[in-house]
Design goal:
single chain, 148 residues, mainly alpha, Recoverin, domain 1, 3-stranded antiparallel sheet, 6 helices
Length: 148
């Protein structure tokens, strides 16, 4: 008696054989298809304890790594202090603004975890019709809190 997996494997072999015959036995001329990495792995079944534990452990390690990348409360307070210290006048109403030069200075002082947020692309994304070419400190800080 064959196991369920053996039956599925046999069925797949037969399907491939008949499909290739029907298609004319042509193989794709592009061999790069053979090098495409596998990106989907089925979830382990309940009786596959070792695979379940491996999945749980890898997920935990991934979440720990992502957690270490997040800014903690002290780092956020330091970032806000630096942004406030380097604001560029004049203010628009109650809103503090910062130009690109000061933005880069804050980026240098803010630390390695913040470095990813101090790019020209992010500055440009937050730039809105300011006659002096500045962005809102509050908008930038909110962006960091959402993305970080």
């Amino acid at each position: 008696k064959k196991s369920e997996q053996e039956l599925k494997d046999e069925e797949m072999e037969l399907f491939t054989k008949y499909y290739m015959e029907w298609k004319g036995g042509q193989k794709s001329g592009n061999i790069s298809y053979a090098n495409i990495p596998r990106f989907y792995y089925r979830l382990p079944a309940e009786d596959e304890v070792l695979l379940q534990k491996l999945r749980e452990e890898s997920r935990a390690v991934f979440l720990q790594r992502k957690s270490r990348e997040l800014l903690d409360n002290e780092e956020l307070q330091n970032l806000w202090f630096l942004l406030d210290k380097h604001q560029t006048s004049p203010m628009i109403g109650e809103e503090a603004m910062i130009n690109y030069e000061n933005f880069l200075k804050v980026g240098e002082k803010a630390g390695p975890k913040c470095k990813q947020f101090f790019t020209a692309k992010i500055f440009a994304k937050l730039l809105h019709n300011d006659p002096y070419g500045r962005i809102s400190i509050m908008q930038f800080f909110n962006y960091v809190m959402r993305k970080g």
